[in-house]
Amino acid sequence: MRHKWADLIHLWAEGAEIQHNYIGNPDDSGWMDCEETICWDSENLKFRVKPKKLEWWENIPEHGVLARSEKYRGCAVFIDKPVIPSEWTPLTNEEIERFKR
């Protein structure tokens, strides 16, 4: 039988930073960095890969994207929804570089 955390264990073995939180914790702000030894069989913990600190200009679809719309005169906005409304077009990497300047 495959271990419940097999995918994360493999990522951890390859160098990913892992965090844990207590199951049943009402707010998800309690994520803590794991030390060198991780108790993968704990029934009270859940695990995740430590999220990358995002820079405001990065387009990472699962976290949000910068987008523009001709309907709104090319205005750029940050959209943090999984589906981008049709009138919005994600900025290209080149546009983001120009936007950062």
What attributes does this structure have?
101 residues, alpha+beta, three-stranded antiparallel sheet
Q: Strands, helices and their partners?
A:
Layout: H1 6-13, E1 18-22, E2 32-33, E3 45-49, E4 65-69, E5 75-79, E6 89-90, H2 93-100
Antiparallel strand pairs: 1-2, 1-3, 4-5, 4-6
Describe this structure in words.
With 101 residues, the chain is of the alpha+beta class. The chain folds into two domains: 6-49, no CATH class; 65-100, no CATH class. The protein has two helices and six strands, in the order αββββββα. The strands form two sheets. It has a three-stranded antiparallel β-sheet. Strand 4 (65-69) and strand 5 (75-79) form a beta hairpin. The radius of gyration is 19 Å and the shape is elongated. The termini are far apart. The mean pLDDT is 78.
Question: TL;DR?
Answer:
The chain is 16% helix and 24% strand. By secondary structure, it is α+β, with helices and mostly antiparallel strands. The protein folds into two domains: 6-49, no CATH class; 65-100, no CATH class.
Cα end-to-end separation: 52 Å
Continuous helix count: 2
Write down the overall mean pLDDT: 78
Radius of gyration: 19 Å
Give me the side-by-side strand order of the main sheet: 2-1-3
What spatial form do the alpha-carbon principal axes imply? elongated
Overall domain count: 2
State which percent range the strand residues make up. 15-25%
Q: Helix/strand-derived class?
A: alpha+beta
